[in-house]
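Researcher: Please translate sequence to structure tokens.
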Amino acid sequence: MRLAHLLADDADSLTMSRFKAQDLHVMSKPDLTPVTDADQAVEESIRRTLSRARTRDAVTGEEQGTSGHSQRRWIVDPIDGTKNFVRGVPVWATLIALAVEDEVVLGVVSAPALQRRWWAVKDGGAWTGKLIKPTRCEVSDVRRIEDASLSYASLGGWEDAGLGEDFLALMRRCWRTRAYGDFWSYMLLAEGAVDLAIEPELEVYDMAALDIIVREAGGRFTSLDGAEGPWGGNALASNGHLHDAALAFVGSSRGDGDDPDWPDHGPGSVSDLRSRRNPSPETTDPE
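Model: Translation complete:
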């Protein structure tokens, strides 16, 4: 854990020195997402330190891909929230995780512009604040979707994934929805301020550090098909109580009828919500 914090400290120094810099160099990657000289410098710095301190470990990073072959793999997103970084919005962070045999065992999320840091280690709990006197993170105890606060990144991604209507149905069912976005959604969930966080398309470097922090805070982190961990290409994180209910709306397993509290048909189901929005001619009152 000490090494991970040192890596985060170095990353903070680099990112803050370039945040709002007049000469910040911004480029477009092949997928048309932005990358800055700060992203590249942070990942290079982390790789350089790991090459000296953990010579046998593999590294997966957003900017340079995977290097090395080992059961121990560091997973790095140098700046999660690059678009915010470019526009001067302070909601961005460096994400650092360590996976051993495809289980994430350590994670650090450092957001220096917010003066915040969160971290977790397997079976050691999730924490935030100052290293000398940290505060433990604990998810909420909300148990009904109607009472839940949901955070997401954008509606466009759900529409592109063909799940726009399903996601809107979930949003309408929740008490409150806000697009905090990126790492921030999941850290708020770990602190108990948000009850659900969800995104339809992510890479492992977007999720690995978030996964263990959410889990060690008492929550659950899966893909939309319910597979545990950050390996499925998308994410649903919850306080645990609401997980299956949320999957009933947007998960690939929705409508299987296994959970009697969340039927595929009838009052309160996704199908019921859809029918009320788009009534068939047979059920429409001619008056």
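Researcher: Any highlights?
Model: The longest strand covers residues 72-80.
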